[in-house]
Amino acid sequence: MSLKEMLLPKQASNDFHGGRIPVYGFCLMLLPVTFRSMVHFLKADSGVNSIASIHLFPGDPDPNRVIHMFSSVGGAYQSIILLIYLIVLFRYRNLIPLMFALMLVEVGFRMIVASIHPLTEEFYVRTPPGKYGNLPFGLLSVAMLYFAYRNCQKAALSENGSSIMEEPDRKFS
Known about the structure:
There is one protein chain. This protein has one domain (3-11, 18-158). The chain contains 5 helices and no strands. It has helices at 3-7, 20-42, 63-91, 96-116, 129-160. Helix 2 runs antiparallel to helix 3, helix 2 (20-42) runs antiparallel to helix 5 and helix 4 (96-116) packs antiparallel against helix 5. The longest helix is centred in the last third of the chain and has 32 residues, at 129-160. 20% of the residues are buried. Mean pLDDT is 91; it is low at 164-173.
């Protein structure tokens, strides 16, 4: 099975041959995703001030309301992605590797946004937790992709009745 076939199977199903570790890893990774999306979507300040410790900005009209609104809209999008993750977990598990790849892309986008629009120390009281979580989350995504691919390879080999060490029969003309 190629990486492309694992990430983009011909048919979505609950038949996942990537092993237990990626499934459990996916469940573990959904915990901070759930917390983050709910906080950003539902909390009055969308977590911008109370959790990320971004300073309140003075002004009339209150500029913080605009910041909270846009952060809350971001939380709504995060909640939609969370819903897709949960649908995959319960109904289409063979798409879990694709979800890891998308999580990795999301981490990359967050890092790009942070470099294009950097918030330096004068904007917050303490370093926002998301800043610490990007690298471990990205590395965990890569590790889970590796385990899923390795296990899918093993499953494909055992279905074909061959082992990694066997050389395929070659016909020369």
